[in-house]
Amino acid sequence: MTLRAFGRTGVQVSPLTLGAMMFGAWGNPDHDESIAIIHRALDAGINVVDTADIYSQGESEEIVGKALAGGLRDEVVLATKFHAAMSDNPNHRGNSRRWIAREVENSLRRLQTDWIDLYQVHRPEPGTDFDETLGALSDLVHQGKIRYIGTSTFEPSDIVEGQWIAERRGRERVVSEQPPYSILARGIEREVLPVAQRYNLAVIPWSPLAGGWLSGRYRKGAEVPVSSRSARVPGRFDLARPVNIAKLEAVEQLTLLAQEAGLSLVHLALAFVLEHPAITSAIIGPRTLEQLESQLEAVKVTLSPDVLDRIDEIVPPGTTINPEDAGYQPPSLTDPTLRRRSSTGR
Fold this sequence. Notes:
The chain has 346 residues and is an alpha/beta fold. The protein has twelve helices and ten strands. Strand 7 (146-152), helix 5 (156-169) and strand 8 form a beta-alpha-beta unit. Helix 8 packs antiparallel against helix 11. It is globular and about 55 Å long.
């Protein structure tokens, strides 16, 4: 695979990143099979592995750690994330200095490594001062426990604030953003990707196959696939919802377009994401070796302007058909009291 620059870091990465969310109880519980998938991805030229503490409650990190033991660790750009609740204890989650200092040690232990290449804030936390979060992460860089700081699914204003905090407070800079991006979820084209380009951030999007919608498994008249993901986030998959019916309509048109272009729907979807000049490396999350093999050749696909124009007609630029596919909604949208003057007593 032809490597790409990871922002301004000097690190070179493959155009595909192996996402490890499906390794463990959330997807493939067989550790040996999951390890075989990781090794095959590395043999194919992928040099970035992305996981998170919350994936199967740490099991994914443990599998990745076992897969990279025995000399492979130095060959991989290893990324993980923190933020989500790891227990019922209210302090075992979030973006506080207290939790970061503890959870990084847990991740290092599970991953069987002395350092993490990219440690990412999994979601924003408006109630926590981002200067506190960035200060704690900067300390970890200085201690040699992490190499770089990233964010995931951040609002464009939060991305900019992070850059300003680093400059004004002398913190280590956030070097990457990991947003959702697919043909069906193009919302980041409005501001996130232009902001990333302005600050020369690496962008490693998650869910380029839209959570399986662009895998070829979702078709009109066919039985709706059941998966652990659809059980965790039913709002993204329930066909009783009009927004998901609209997604299915788009998938039908995209399937026909892929056939006309002589491509699989998977290759069409991945090639579309990789075509955007702001994208560094797209995260693929196979559960089986067969799924991995079906995605590897996408790096060789170049979509013609006619095909890209047709995609824009099916799903206009900047459009996310189902808002839940955005992965995060700020409190200004989810908390009605923030939009009603009477709720604050004014």
